Predict the 3D structure of the following.
Amino acid sequence: MSTRTTSSRLPGLYTLTVGERRRQVAEAAGLDDQALAALDGGLSEDDAAGMIENVLGRYALPFAVATNFTVDGIDALVPMVIEEPSVVAAASNAARMVRAAGGFTATVAPPIVTGQIQLTHIIDVDRALAAVTEAAPVLLARARELTPRLCARGGGPIAVSARVLARPPGPDGGVIVVEIDVDCRDAMGANLVNTLCERLAEPAAHAAAGRVGLRILSNLSDRRTVKVTCRAPDDALADARCPGALVRTAVAAASRVAELDPYRAVTHNPGVMNGVDAVLVATGQDWRAVEAGAHAFAARSGAYRPLAVWREAEGGLIGELELPLAVGTVGGALHVHRGARLALRLAGVDAAPRLAALAGAAGLACNLAALRALATDGIQRGHMALHARAVARAAGTPTELIDDVADALAAAGDIRVEAARVILQQLSQDPSLKDAP
Ligand code: MEV
């Protein structure tokens, strides 16, 4: 875990230019200009060409930090890469509310990922199950021999078991799956678990008298979960138009709707994943695997449910989020992507559990911000203000006039590039309009 004592409170960061922000964040994170050079995108063309096939170039997304986060008593600047406006501001605002009550608390489960070896065309699945169970200690010992460095770091394979998937007759005959649980330490684990599955498949098939099928990890890493809790007091929840106690009641009601209705839960959960995914993308993680695991976890009761819920208590809201989060701080894209490595440094992350805690906290923060906005003003007012800024920029508005043009667009309720050009022309003909109310 990070021991850095940097404050994540950087009030007014959003008012600065990009260059000024970089300097302030670098100073807060104790990094020099050279380290921040990775903000050029973090990936050379050669490195990109070595990562995937048929590369033509690189594709950029905005890289930001969310402020105000305290997680497990330690402040962190939370790196986020995302194309959607408002998410970073929402995460920072919600983190400020939660900070008033001590911040987020995370419980990160041991980093256990399960590899699966599918065995098919088994005539007697019960006998196969018994045989694999008997062979499990030998298979486990072999698995540990194949992962000496991971075992030396205190991780490695910890159990081998088997389950029946289908009994004959059927298109694949009798099918069992042999599962290897691996403590992956600070790695996400996909490569090492997949390699293990491939290497153990033959001896497992021999024991079960079956045919080797698929050999790969499961992304439903429901033993490698993170649980994040927080409290947001009424005072912090209040805004100019709505007292905190009303916001509290409205957010708890919004949480209950998601618990009652899968159609709402499916919209509620992307509010969580906005925060989680933005941190995962910034830090070079396999966010598709996490997404698949998160939604399977959300549906584990048989109905699709919210990943995060909010309850009223002690003059505030208590939030709780739980999801599987297989992340790594070694290996994967981190080998080549300087931007992802910089993101970990900015956040002061030096081990996978801390990264999982920050991603979870970002998820819970984004969910709180979304529910608070939906339950009070609605989200469109804030979105429209940001949209107006983007349209003003697209119309060629110089930086110093963006706020004026965006305000005029929003006030007119006509947020189009043509309208922005007209306003710009009026401003250039009569600059006194700039200060008009
Ligand atoms: C949009 O990216 C996320 C929200 O739809 C989440 C929610 O509805 O809770 C606003």
User: Anything to note?
Assistant: Residues 84, 267-268, 270-271, 274, 370-371, 374, 379 surround (R)-mevalonate (CB under 6 Å). Residues 352-375 form the longest helix (24 residues). The two ends are 50 Å apart (CA to CA). The domain at 112-217 is CATH 3.30.70.420 (Alpha-Beta Plaits).
